[in-house]
């Protein structure tokens, strides 16, 4: 994207790479938001339900994060 803006909004790398870069960009945003949501959920459980949180297996929490 930096090269695109510096070259006067002219993409020289082809349409396939343009679509790939765009998909990677938005995929990164989506994954980052999901990771922050999962971290927030784990911290919420640790504060509001500490005994339940300690009983839950770490593998169960990891599976939740993957979904």
UniProtKB/TrEMBL annotation:
Record's keyword terms, sorted: G-protein coupled receptor, Membrane, Receptor, Transducer, Transmembrane, Transmembrane helix
Compartmental location: Membrane
Keyword Heme: no
Membrane topology, record value: Multi-pass membrane protein
Annotated gene: F2RL2
TM region positions: none
Domain G-protein coupled receptors family 1 profile: 1-67
Listed GO MF terms: G protein-coupled receptor activity; oxysterol binding
Protein name: Coagulation factor II (Thrombin) receptor-like 2
Cited InterPro entries: GP183-like, GPCR_Rhodpsn, GPCR_Rhodpsn_7TM
Pfam families in UniProt: 7tm_1
Gene3D superfamilies listed in its UniProt record: Rhodopsin 7-helix transmembrane proteins (1.20.1070.10)
GO cellular component, one term: membrane
Cross-referenced PANTHER family: COAGULATION FACTOR II (THROMBIN) RECEPTOR-LIKE 2-RELATED (PTHR24237:SF37), G-PROTEIN COUPLED RECEPTOR (PTHR24237)
């Amino acid at each position: 994207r930096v090269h695109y803006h510096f070259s006067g909004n002219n993409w020289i790398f082809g349409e396939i790479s343009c679509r790939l870069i765009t998909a990677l960009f938005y995929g990164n945003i989506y994954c980052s938001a999901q990771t922050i949501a999962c971290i927030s959920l784990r911290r919420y459980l640790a504060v509001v339900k500490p005994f339940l949180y300690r009983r839950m297996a770490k593998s169960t929490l990891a599976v939740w994060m993957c979904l």
